[in-house]
């Protein structure tokens, strides 16, 4: 049994994890392992927002973005997903990952200018960038099975063996290397500044992001029926609560998205991504809120019924980022979009 925190990131603890060394998880889970030389990653979400189906101009913007990704210093991995938001807008979100900050810094300025900057052509649709640049001490991953990494884990050198810190409340925090010495408490408050056509969010410290995904592509008829009939509706109910009422519990914004393939066709994959005031706020929802209690209950019933035969794949990544590890920019987006939802007013630059 391994620790989720790799040896080169382990340090003398001033905070203790919630379980002891003799804890035995009830089922196996795994984490991504980066090369020790990787010290920081980039997670950059590029969004297009339209009323109804994406406009031709928006489709062209997405095609151009994919072309930019293929250029020198582009991301090691990217994927795309879509969802209908609370205001009735279609959002197509492309998330790109780098494990070399210098490559990103060379690539990003030109792409940023075309996406949210002065070279952007406004053709009646919104665009946004939401990016984090966390150190490897500031995030964690978790996978229910091996063989198909998702998200930031695609950049990793490989996967761990079975890890200790999971299947208990507090495991998410215990897997983040910073938790060995830091409470990761938020400080300050987010504010918005208008910069020409662009609105920039200046965030507070220790903002939290979770991306949590499901892949039912390998399931056979009976399991697929069970997932889509018994689990997914409960998951959707929880995702809708966070989308519509999340601010009351510290969730600034939530998107429950369907992954789309390179040809634009929907896949049998989905993920929720949400911005939280703090890791603690996310933990409180997970541990005690009725919507997540129902999600957890439905998932446990499903997994206990199927046992090792379950083909459903689950994963997540959770990041806690300092103020200087965050960037948020929005152009022509409605005020409930992403971190715009975290502020009350927009100040002039």
TrEMBL record:
Heme recorded as keyword: yes
Signal peptide as annotated in the record: none
Superkingdom as given in the UniProt entry: Bacteria
Record-linked InterPro entries: OXD
GO molecular function, one term: metal ion binding
Cofactor entry: heme b
Keyword annotations of the record: Heme, Iron, Lyase, Metal-binding
Family, per entry: Belongs to the heme-containing dehydratase family.
Protein name (record): Phenylacetaldoxime dehydratase
């Amino acid at each position: 049994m391994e620790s989720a925190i790799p040896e080169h990131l382990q340090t003398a603890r001033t905070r203790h994890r919630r379980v002891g060394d003799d804890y035995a998880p009830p089922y196996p889970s795994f984490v991504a392992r980066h090369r020790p030389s990787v010290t920081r990653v980039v997670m950059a979400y590029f969004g297009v927002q339209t009323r109804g189906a994406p406009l031709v101009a928006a489709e062209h913007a997405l095609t151009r973005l994919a072309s930019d990704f293929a250029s020198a210093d582009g991301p090691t991995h990217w994927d795309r997903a879509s969802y209908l938001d609370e205001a009735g807008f279609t959002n197509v979100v492309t998330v790109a990952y780098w494990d070399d900050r210098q490559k990103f810094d060379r690539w990003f300025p030109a792409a940023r200018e075309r996406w949210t900057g002065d070279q952007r052509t406004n053709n009646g649709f919104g665009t946004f960038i939401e990016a984090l640049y966390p150190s490897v001490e500031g995030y964690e991953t978790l996978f229910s099975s091996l063989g198909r990494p998702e998200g930031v884990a695609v950049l990793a050198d490989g996967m761990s063996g079975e890890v200790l810190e999971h299947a208990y409340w507090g495991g998410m925090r215990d897997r983040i290397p910073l938790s060995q010495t830091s409470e990761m408490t938020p400080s300050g408050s987010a504010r918005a500044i208008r910069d020409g056509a662009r609105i920039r969010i200046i965030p507070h410290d220790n903002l939290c992001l979770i991306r949590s995904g499901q892949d039912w592509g390998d399931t056979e008829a009976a399991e697929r029926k069970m997932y889509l009939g018994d689990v997914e509706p409960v998951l959707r109910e929880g995702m809708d609560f966070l989308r519509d009422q999340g601010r009351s519990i510290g969730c600034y914004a939530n998107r429950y998205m369907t992954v789309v393939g390179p040809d634009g066709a929907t896949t049998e994959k989905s993920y929720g991504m949400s911005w939280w005031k703090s890791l603690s706020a996310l933990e409180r929802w997970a541990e005690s809120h009725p919507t997540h209690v129902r999600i957890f209950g439905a998932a446990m019933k499903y997994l206990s019924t199927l046992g090792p035969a379950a083909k459903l794949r689950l994963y997540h990544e959770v990041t806690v980022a300092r103020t200087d590890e965050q960037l948020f920019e929005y152009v022509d987006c409605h005020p409930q979009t992403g971190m715009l939802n975290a502020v009350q007013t927009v100040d002039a630059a």
